[in-house]
């Protein structure tokens, strides 16, 4: 055998199965066999065992070929044999249309163009192309819906009456008219009060005729009566006319009992107005402001009280005004503080303690005046004379320890709780003595003013201590906590010149 040349296929290697010969049914296979190198035809054994035929695979019929029923009543076979519809063909995508580019055209020079806004002549100006403005504002929401033509009202159906469009406008106009009327009334009564104060001042300085004090007292009494009724929600016109009638009758008839009665009415009205005209105070400085306002109102009432020239004794006059004033004050506070159910435990303690202090002070004063020993009474008179000669006046203990502290603490508490009105009720112990101070003919105007100033100043100190104790036991601890508590003390209450 020659060596392998390039391009020719190499001879196959001999196999170990090459000595076996396979026949089918003892017959040699058709065709010729190519003997390998060194092999003979007689040396190859013949395998006489026939090949086993493989078993044919079982053919399972198609379930759809089996007859369901005599026919196809539900159309299942027809539905399954129907070919699926072809998928929809998407439309071809067309390229966007491109606007043709037009060549620029130069317009010839035109005459002057006048702008309709500025009326300036522009030579050769071309009016710009303005795009149409589309109003995208939403439709108004207050328009009534369109009626449904297919709506059929059931039996007993009542359609709502249409609301007029000008209802809000009418309401605003009505409220504006009410505010204007209230301002006009306030201006009128303020002018009347100013006129009465000027008349009383001229009478106190002995300038002018003798009837100035009576006329000024009537003006102040009428104004204070209207203010009390306006603040407490009463009948303003009725009580104002009644106050004017009482004042004019007392001045015209010149009877001692009428003058004394008009003076008592003026004193009580002034003290009540001084208390009810205060507003809640979140801080101590605001409470001081309210005390000053109440003292000023009661001081004007003091001049009006003495303007009627009462002839009753000073002690009897003070007791009558204190009794009537506290009775009316508690009646008003009963309305403002919603009765006793809004009083609470602390409010009840305050009312009881205040009543005891008031009763004890009055009883002690009366006993000292009537049954005091010579030495004790003489020592008291000596102390009063020393204070008059040293500081100019003697402060009132009732005002220092009850009236002013109650008023300060009450307006401070009203900014947080309604029961502050019960505390303010004892503020009448500060305003009533101020209004009745000039009735005593032995007291001059300067001494009365100094006595009021000293009593209010010392009472403010006592009130400050009471507020600090109240906040220490029931309030927040720390400066920041107290500042936050003052910021959130916003109990709603009408303004000073509004009805409670």
TrEMBL record:
This is DUF2339 domain-containing protein. Keywords: Membrane, Transmembrane, Transmembrane helix. The chain crosses the membrane at residues 186-205, 211-230, 237-253, 259-279, 291-311, 317-336, 348-367, 387-409, 421-439, 445-467. Residues 1-71 are annotated as: Disordered. The lineage of its organism: Bacteria, Bacillati, Actinomycetota, Actinomycetes, Propionibacteriales. Residues 1-11 have a biased composition (Basic residues).
